[in-house]
Each structure stands twice: as C-alpha cells, then as structure tokens.
Amino acid sequence: MGYALNVNIIKHHLKGLPALAIATGNFVCLFVPSLVILWWTDFFEQVGSSLPMQISVGYIAILALFGTALASILFNKLIEISSPVFASSVTYTMPLVAVIWGFADGERFGLIQGLSAVVVFVGVYLANQRAKKTPEV
Fold it and tell me: Which of 19, 27, 52, 97 has the most crowded CB, counting CB atoms within 10 A?
C-alpha cells in the first residue's frame, strides 16, 4: 500500500519535479524528526563514548548514502520515465536481490526460507491475477 501511494503521488502530483528534488525533499522532511528521536534516546551520547559505535554509524551512513538515497533517486527517476504500475513492479525483484546479497554474505538459505519465498510469490501471483480480472471503472 505504501509503494502504491508513493508511486501515484509522485507520478500525478509531483510530475514536473526532477527525481533528485523529490528524493531530497523526502530526506529533508525526515531529518528533523530523526534528529529529535536520536537526541531523545541518548544516541549521540552513546556514539560519542564508544569507538565501535562510531565505526558502526560510519557504515550505516555509507549504506544510507549509497543504498537508500541512491535507490530512492533511481526509483523516482523510474516513476518519472514510466508508469506507476511498471515502477512498482520493481518491488517484485527485491526478494531476489536480498537472497543474492545473503548468499554473497555467507547466509544460509534453508527450507523455511524457501517455503516463505514460495508463499510470497504465490501471494504476488494471486494478487496480479485478481488485478487482471478486475474491470476498470
């Protein structure tokens, strides 16, 4: 539901804005509430007093910059140049990418994970079948 709202709002209400501006606006809106939460939970004090925490925060910053921010810009660009339905279909590839990263990181993929993946893919298939049969108004 979140992706559906996101792609439709971006495609129909933010049509003239470049992808970078939309992504920047998203992160600017999150910045102040995030700082308040981090301050409220004594995050800065804990990070300041622990070298391992500082290193961890550095890695999180790298992940945020090159993972989340870059992916957000690319996703907004995809919405800009295509339809919301096509852009939201990128969510179907997320489990595959997650499994590939897991294998690269040495994680195990057992029977429970395989059965869970089958349940997710069957749900996606059934949702798409129902969407195809539903007449447009």
Answer: 19
Q: Count of CB atoms within 10 A of residue 87's CB? A: 22
Residue 18 makes CB contacts below 8 A (sequence gap 6+) with 80
CA distance 31 to 114: 37
Residue 94's pLDDT is 75
Q: In angstroms, how far is the first alpha carbon of the chain from the final one?
A: 20
Domain ranges of the chain: 2-133
> What CA–CA distance (Å, rounded) separates 19 from 17?
7
**Tokens of residue 14, six digits:** 């933010």
pLDDT of residue 38: 93
User: Can you tell me whether residue 25 is helix, strand or coil?
Assistant: helix
pLDDT of residue 136 exceeding 60? no
Can you say whether the dihedral through the CA atoms of 55, 42, 34, 32 is positive or negative? negative
| CA–CA distance, 100 with 37 (Å, rounded to integer) | 33
